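Data deposition worksheet. Section B asks for the primary sequence of the deposited chain exactly as it was used as input, without tags or linkers unless they were present during the calculation. Section C holds the resulting structure in token form. Section D is free text for depositor observations; keep each observation to a single sentence. Incomplete worksheets are returned to the depositor.
Section A, Depositor: J.P.
Section B:
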Amino acid sequence: MKEVEAVKSRDTIKLISYLLKRHYGQQMADVWEIGLNLALRISDLLATRFSDIRGDKLCITEQKTGKQAKILLNDKTKSLIEAIRQRHPDHVYLFQSHRSHQVQRTEPKPLSRRAVTKAFAFVGEDIQLALGTHSMRKTRGYHLYQSCKDISRVMHMLRHQSEAVTLRYIGLTQQQVDNDFAQLEI
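Section C:
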């Protein structure tokens, strides 16, 4: 699997959303924006059902780890979810495949990981960035770290077991850590 990057520029984050909407539609832009705000693995994000949303929290069991995750929904995420609910009141999944509705008498299915991977890779090529489904999670972790400089907070948000994994995950290099020490004099 190709290594993907965190998106470090907020302008690039907005550009990706715009390009996804332009080339693939509102649903793919919603995957990007909600994915950034929830920092879930793509398998958990796509498997999210409207019934998993309880008030202002998303309550799921992570597929990879089996851990329970209760994530507070920020205002932007609540607004995006409500817009999806308004557009598709009969959907079971937050990101439901439209193809499953085309075939009568089939169970609803979520958008496929393959479709999202393809869309993200296309946009990534366009802007010359290693963009993939994991970029959303990495981007959220990177920006949280930049705002608080607390790796344990980032580790907790991503539900990682070690700081080393989290540092590598968000693309923080030893050089950047060294620069932080050199620049901050007390």
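Section D:
The two ends are 43 Å apart (CA to CA).
The mean pLDDT is 90.
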